Each structure stands twice: as C-alpha cells, then as structure tokens.
User: Fold these one by one.
Assistant:
Number 1:
Amino acid sequence: MYKYNHFIPLSVYSVKNKDIIPDQWYNIIPDLPEPLSPPRDHDPERSSIDLLNRILPSEVLKQEFTSRRYENIPEEVLRQYEQAGRPTPLIRASNLEKFLNFAGKIFYKYEGATVTGSHKINAAIPQAYYAAQEGVTEIATETGAGQWGTATALSASLNGIKSKIFMVNVSFRQKPLRKRIIEIYGGDVVASPSSLTHYGRQILKNEPDHPGTLGIAISEAVQYTLDNGIRYLMGSVENSVITYQSIIGQEAQKQLEIEGEEPDVLIGCVGGGSNFSGFVFPFMKTDVEMIASAASEVPKFSKGKYRYDLIDTAGILPQLKMISLGADYVPPPIYSGGLRYHGAAPALSMLVNSGRIRTDEVTEEKSREAMQIFARTQGIVPAPESAHAIATAIDYCKNPENTGKTVVMNVSGHGLLDLSIFGD
Amino acid sequence: MKLALYFTFPYPSGETFNKFLNRTMPLNYEYVELGIPTEHPYYDGPVIRKTHGRAREEFSMELLKDTVQTIRETGKKAYALVYCNLFENDADGFMSSMKDAGFNGMILPDLLTDYYSMRRSIASTVSSHGLELIPFFNSTTPDSVIKEILSLTHSWIYFGLQPSTGIRVPLDIQSMYGRIRNLCGEREIIVGFGINNAGIIRDLRKVGFDGIAVGSALIDSMEKNDTVAFDSEIKMLESETHG
Ligand SMILES: Cc1ncc(COP(=O)(O)O)c(C=O)c1O
C-alpha cells in the first residue's frame, strides 16, 4: 500500500481536526512590502502607546508589536478552538454555481459554523485566555453587530472571568436577541452611549437618543477598563487581532490543498478588516487575486483617506495610519453593524492603498438579495456583513472574464439573529 | 558593549546643555546623537517630545557646530537625529550643513515610514555629502525593507526596541534579537528606546546586542539641573556597558 501513497489524494485519508487547525498564528508584518507606519500619539502630554499597558492583556500587547512571523498557539487555546467548532468547513457551493450558471468553482469557508456563529471567537478566545492567565477577573469590550460581544461573553466564561459589553445603541435596539444571547453566555451588556462612563454621559447629555457608533463604544469600553483596572479586548483593527484571525486562512489553505485546488480569487467582507485579513494574509505570498468588500453606505474604500486617524472617538487609544472616513463619522444605521466602523486595519489599508488588494462596495439592498440567494441555494442564511462578500463574489462570477476561475470566499458568520433585515 | 547618548539639542538651554554634555565627555562611550528639534517629533514619547519645543527656541547653527566639534575632539562620533520634514524642501542644502557642522552621520527615524517612497534619493543625498546613513529599524520593519536598506548603507544599525522612545511595553527580547541579527549579519546593532535601568541593559547585553542608546532617562535630571542625579545615571550606563 505504502508505495502507492503518492497517487492517493489526501482526501482519501480520514483527516483529523488537528491536521487542519494550525498550531501557530501567522503575523504578516515582517512580510509586508513596505514598513507599516507606527502608531502615533496625538496628545503631546502623554503616551497613549504606554497607556496600552493598562488597557490590553500584556501578552496581547507583546504580540501587537512583535517581530515574530509565527506565534505558537497555546495548547489550551487550541482545545478551546476545537470546542468552539474549529476547524470550520470549506464547502464547495455547487448549488450557487448552478444557480449562476458559473463554469468555474466556488468555495466558501464557513465561519458561521463556530458555536457563536462568526469568526469573532477566533480572536476572543486567545485574548480572554491571556487575560485570565494574567490574573484579570473582568474584561470589557464594544460590539456593533453583536457578534463580537457574543464571542467575548462566551470566551470570558470559558476562561472563568466576567465581561462587560458596550453595544452600539442602534444595534441594541435593532437586535434584542443579540442582547439575550450575550446574557445567556454570561456577559453583561449595556447600550452605548451609556451612563457608565464620563464620555458616554457627556454624549447623552447633548443627545439622549444618540444612535451610537463603534468609535464611541470602543471609547467607553476603554474608559471603563481604565476606571476599573480591568482589561479591554479589541475585536478588529489591531495587528494582534489580525494575527489571531490568520487561523481562517491557514485552515483554508490546508483544506484547499486537500481538495487539490488553487484559488484564483479570495473574497471577504471588511468592517475593521479582521476576517478578511485573517482569511487572505496567509495567501499573500501567492499571486492570488484578493477583493475586499465593504458597505456602500459606509464607503471607506471609495471615499476614505489613507492617513493617521483615531481608533476610538474619544482618542484614548493611539492613532493609526489607515483608510478612514474620520473617527467622528456617524454611519447610517445599516443592518450590517459590523461594517459600520470608520477605518480598516493598518496592514490591510496599506495593501489596498498599494493596489495589491482590490475593493468593492455593496449596497444594503444588494446584500439582502445575496443573503436570500445564498439561503435558497446553499441553505445558509449568512450574516448581512458576510452577504457583502457573497454579493461581490456573485458579481465576480457573472463577469465573463472570470469564467472557469476558482473563487473562494469567506462567509464570516450566519445571520440567524439578523433576520429583522427582512422586516418585522 | 557600546554606549550612545541621545540629547535633544540644545535642551533645556544652550548653557545648561553644554554643562551636562561636558560632564559626559571624559566618560568612556562611543556615540552622541543630537536630536535636531522639530515641530512634530511624531515617533518620540512624551518625555523627548516636550524637549523639542524649548530646543527649537534655543537652537542655533553656531552653537551646534561648537558642540559637535567638542564631541569629535574626544574621539566620539556625532550623529544628527533628524525628522525628514526638516529638510523636505532642500535635502542637499541640509545635508551639506550637517556635514559642515561636523557630524559623522544621520539617523532619520521617519525615513522608512512617512518618507518611504523617497528613501533611495535621501540615502544617496546623505552619502553624497560624506555622511553615514544609520539605518533605523524596529520590530515591525519588514524583512525585504531591512535587506534593501542594508544594501544601501555600510554603518552600524539603530534598532528601536519599543514602538516609541521612553515607553515600555512587554517584549520578547530574545526573538527580536534573533530576527534582527539574522538579517543584519555581522553589522553592529545598537538598540534604543525605553532603556532606563541596569537590569534591561544586562538582558540586552546577554542576548547579544552590540550597544545601547539612552535618551529619555537623562532628561529629568537635566531639566532639574541636578548634576548629582545626572552623574549617577551616566556612571551607571558607563559601567553597565563598559564595565
Ligand atoms: C459576521 C461579521 N462579519 C464581518 C464583520 C466585520 O468585522 P471584520 O472586518 O473585523 O471582520 C463583523 C463585525 O462585527 C461580523 O460580525
């Protein structure tokens, strides 16, 4: 039997989870074509970078500025990843191919298959784990769509600590089920702007009905962290978060290899850039095409500028050089709460700016259509955010120039808690 | 292990600056870095940042020339640490004045970030005036960029340990050193940013760095005109690096 090994496709063997889940995260920074502009302080009197020592778990902070290309994933984090549903499947969307009459192949990596229903758990588990290891008893964070808050609440519980979640007010109202599930997982959720922080109280005084933004919610979570001597978990944008999300792309690489496939294009949606970057960065050394899909209503790629800007509206965190619509930008209340962030991760912004990564912007209307098409063909109701990637992929497949290509998209989450996008 | 001392020039005033610099002159150390003051020292921490404002008011070219000469007479090398926006419009004229002031070379902290697209032309202007360009790298400088800049220069390397001066975030010194050593081969690597105590100097020495640069840690005593505290700091630095 052994002498035929070379001729038997890998897929014939029974593949174990640990053959697919990588044991290291990949950090793209040392492989970037240009240096990343470092974070900057904007207040001349103090160092917001130094302040990160009191905001982030110290291991996370270390990984934020690391020069290591690969970071070992702790055993316990690997175990929690498996418990949370990793590896997620890579599925051939042959019904969608048929529906589109597409002569090529479409695959999707399905992050909606994790227990919390999105990729967010990939970054929440390690951060909560490191925080707990360091003796932190409570963590705080923001959430837009609610996916990150859900993942944080579960990760905190898995690691035996408490969580406080500042949820953008519009989402809090649009998505009561999100609030419920965060609570079931053991999280304590409040609408932002809130009366729990000085910054929130100031905003509420002027505008009691303020819809909230991710920038404000981040500010509140960070302020609450500093006020209470706890630690803050970031859901996107930071290098370390992108590194944790590299598990998506590394698994996909393995799975494509097992299928004997080489992708021509990778497509994903972009809010802060974590699922997209985590999905595509491990492929950066190949010449595969990459398309980042954002919301037309939050047109960061077409109208944003590549410049230093604040991460959070209050300006507690350092400034980053990124594509941004401005930290004080108040986005329209589209359902894709996860795509309402004003900026995009620095490494992603650089690669978009240099032309390595192409971009697309999709309207809410079109993303709703894509949700329906995907539900009726593949049986999965994607998250409205992920539906942007699907809409971009559908357009890509409809373009005659792309006939016969192999398309791989990342479906970052399911939309079962977002059904109100179709009306009440 | 080598020692480089950084001073924003001339802080807090021309007179006090000279007084303190002169106290270091008899000591056994190799390099002096003089920060030429600028409006936006973006990549410095708050301690050094605030020195730039006062130093701008006190700055004069004659004073600079005298100072560099004093340094060179002791056999130490003098380097100008300059943000590129200071010479954006006339790199040639500026480098000529730096050469004229007597500097051995230039350290440009924002060359590989904000001025990345101009790196080759700036590097060639620097060397056309007989100045060394000291590559400034940190842990987030990509491998390919490090290799390119090494090929354009011949001097020692300045490696920024921390994301900015005077601050301390947790680091894995061993792996940082391993990577940069691997890329830089035999070239001398001087490490700086956030170095303020004997413990960290010993750690850096042990992993294999060739030298350290210290700046923020000296400012407080200069500001307070406290020669006792200043002397004890520089003696500690001298004995940790050369003892
Ligand atoms: C399902 C889903 N996809 C995508 C995003 C966008 O975030 P990112 O760009 O960081 O992946 C979010 C954010 O909340 C989300 O919940």
Number 2:
Amino acid sequence: MLQGITMNGKPLVYLDNGATTFKPQPVIDAVNYFYNNINSNIHRGDYEIAFKADQAYDHCRKTVAEFINCDEREVVFTYGATSALNTVAYGYARKNLKEGDVILLTRAEHASNALPWFRVAEETGAKIEYIELTPTGKMTLWNLRKAIHEGVRIVAIAAVTNVLGVKTPVREICRMAHKVGAVVMVDGAQSVPHTRTDVKDMDCDFLAFSGHKMCGPGGTGILYGKYELLEKMDPMLLGGGANARFDSKQNVILKEAPIMFEAGTPNIEGVLGLDAAIQYLMKLGMDNIESHEQELRDYLFAELAKLDNVTVYNPDGDSAIAAINVKGVFSQDAACYLASQGVAVRSGNHCAKMLVDVIGTNDTIRCSMYFYNDKADVDALIRALRTCTLENCVGVFF
Amino acid sequence: MADLLKDPMVLREIIMDHYEYPRHHALTNGHGYLRAHMASESCIDDIQVEAKIEDGIVRDVNFEGVACTISTASTSIMTELVRDKTVEEAREIMKNYFAMINGDPYDEDLLEEAVAFAGVSKQANRIKCATIGWHGLEKLLAESEKKDD
Ligand SMILES: Cc1ncc(COP(=O)(O)O)c(C=O)c1O
C-alpha cells in the first residue's frame, strides 16, 4: 500500500496508524465505482443507479453486522467515532441521567470520549469519576471493582487506549457495570481495526469506531447499540431521510432505528468504501492481523529497550503502539527529525490531555503500527532514533 | 559577526544555546507588565510572554513555558532583540522577522542572531513554532498602544 511513496527523499515508513491508515486499492476502487457508475442519492431508488446505490449502502450494514457480530438493525452509520460517541452522549445519557448519577471514565480517554460526557455532566448534574490506572496506564480489576458502585449509570471506556495501546478488560467492565445497572459505551477506535470484535461476547451496550483508522474512507464511522437501547434514544440530528412524516402542526414521526439516526445525505461513497475495507480486513483475517501486530509489538519494544537515549512510557503496552521520548529532546523536535529520515510518527498529547496525571508527561512521540508494517519499519525507526540528538534535530533547518 | 551568521554550524549552535539556556526565561508577573498566553494549534507549545512598555519603549520582555527548540529559542532571541527598543523599532524588527519566516526579503542586520531561523521558511510545519513568542509580543505591543490612546 505504501509502495513507492517517499518522504524527504526516503521511502516512507508510516508509523502514525493510530491517527489514520492508508487505503488498499479495493477501497479506492469502491469509492471510484460510486462516482463513476452509480452516483446518486439513496433512500429513493426510482431509477436504476439510485437503486444500486441504495443496495450497496445497505449492504455495508450487513458487512458490519457480520464483522462485529450483531444484528443489521443495530448498525448506525456515523461520520466517525467522535460522532458516534456524541450520538450516545446526547441521545441516551443526556436524556436518562439525573443529578448525582455517575459517569465513569479513565484519564487515558481521548477527547472524543471525554468531552461529550463532560457536557452531559454539566447539563444533567451528573458527576464524572475515574477508574484509577497504573503508571503505565493499565486497569487492574481491583481498581475497576473499587470504581464501580450503585451510583454509576454509564461507563465510557476505550477498549484500547490511543497513546499507550493498553487493552482494557471490557468484558469484566461490562459484567460489573451491568450488575449495578449501568450502561457501557466502548470506544473501539483503536481496537476494532486491530483485533476481532464480538459485541455479543463482550456484551457492551454501545460501541463506536472510525472507518478511516481501519483502511476505510474518511468521514465514516459506526455506532453499534443494543436495539432496545437505540430505540429509546433521541437522534442528535433531525432532518431528511430520518423522519417518516411531519406536518405544519409540527407533528413529527421519526423512522425507526437505525435510520432515525442518519438524517441528511450520508457519506454514501464512504460507506461503500468502508464495506470494501471491512471485507479486505476479514479476508486477511482479524486473528492474523492481531498476531502479526503482536509479533511487531514484541520486536518494537525489545529494540526500543536497547536504546539508552529513549524513554519508553508503556514498556508493557499491549499493542504495536509505543509512547516514547528521546531524552533531552522535545517530542515535536524529535518527530520532525524522524520525518527527515522518512519516518512518520506523531508528537504531542494525542488528544488525551488527562493522561499527564497518569504517566507524568504532557507530550510524547507515538509510533503506531498496522498490519502492513513490518520489522524493517521498526529497524528504520530505531536507526533514526539512534541519531536523534538535539544537534541533528536543529540541523533539520540547515 | 556578519560572516559568522552565515555559517550553519554557528547558527545551529545559536539555536541550541538559546534552547538549553533560554534568556529572560522567568516571568516577573510584576506591576506594569502586560501578559499574553500563547498556545499553539499544534497543541504542544504553551508559552507566556510578558512585557513592560513605558513611554513607547520596550523596557523588559520575559517568557516562560513548555515548548520545542524552535519556539523556545526564537522567543529567547526575541527577548534580547527588542529589549530597550522603541515600540516602532520593535515592530520593524518583527516585520522583518515575519518576512524571513515567510521566505520574503528581509533586513539581516535588524535580525542579528534571529537569522538562525531563516531555514524555518522551508519547514512549513514549524512556522507556528518559530512565531508563537513573536505573535505574543505583537499582541502586547498592540495592547500597549491601545492603552496609551
Ligand atoms: C481512542 C480514540 N477515540 C476516538 C477517536 C476519534 O476518532 P475520529 O477522529 O475518527 O472521530 C480517536 C482518534 O483519534 C481515538 O484514538
């Protein structure tokens, strides 16, 4: 996929997959197919290409249902994980929470799984509480047990955290949360692209993920919700496509879930591309992807441990994601130097601004890998890190 | 001096020196100081700049914050360049500095050590870093003039 792409005259080593991923040809073809052959709007297939677009759009719901093991009716198309998370915060939590209720998060959450809940708390008088994490961002069952109590109504948690790549014990979280009658929102933005996802087995109530982080087009995402919960939610957006009828006396009858949540012309071409992306991943096999990435993970951390100029914040991380800093070099300077060596990584706080309370640093370099990365990419990273001195970082400008 | 400032090795040393030993790197929070808090959209740099401007003269400039080499060093050099200049002179220096960062013609003599950042114009992603402190000062100068009116 990255064949032939260069950066600063060097073959591109792309290690920013936590931000977004490259797209395989079948995905690009699917988007092009829509534009070239069946460009039209959906929901009113009175002519042939519109009917075909309709069918292709609906087909993706089946594909997603198979991919995460749910019913088609439980699949809502969104614009990404962010809009899926907001849809639940707005449509479920804002409606059902009251003063004193507790929303349980961790300090490792991405802004998209924190700020919507902050607003719910502000508007309903609910309280935000946090499950304590270890200094490398792990959640122990002991800390989980301490955090869950009768007042907890919602637990919103990333299945894999986006800076440290930590896997959270989602099944246990769901089990314990359900015992106290709380609802669990799983942020799958960093987990669904990399590991087999089975919402029935996990028993989560809601799951959000983004298409672009799993080889799909930008502006696509999925909200999964148990159907009986979706039915009770308010849509965040109202408009065309999502209502059954309305009149000038303001009588409005909405369509049923999931269509109720898809007001406005959706990202049709994106959804077609997402269908192709998911089929691509299923063909590779999620278990194969996971075991390849585990191998990369082991190699990555073993090689990083050999460097004495590098601090690793998550040496026990569960994913092929390393959060590091080069000693004495500001993360952004180091990332720019790595870029000059052809290695694309991300520096900063990665939208997880509460994580400083856990790992004690505001900003890191995040190297995040996907199935198309290999050990040679790790080697290129390590080579560049070895020569990443302050002199060389400043040298980039001359 | 002028020739030294053409040697990349020297320019690199200047940046590193101002990063490792930033000048005027503590806010006084004193009476009569104006303050600006600058957070870069790149969401890392977080710099505060303060200045005491009296009778149209920049008497003192200091800064503090967490930031990369480029923003730290460029702000540090700025605090030295504009100190004891008139607001007008400071603006002229600033204008030339921004011109250099944008890859436009500029007066080297006015910029002294700040010419070390000429190469930033070729690294578009770091322009914000090289100008964050300067934009802070720009705000303070504007504020001081408003006050004088
Ligand atoms: C854990 C996590 N949650 C949510 C998001 C938001 O995803 P998107 O920007 O695609 O809506 C991201 C991606 O940056 C993420 O890593």
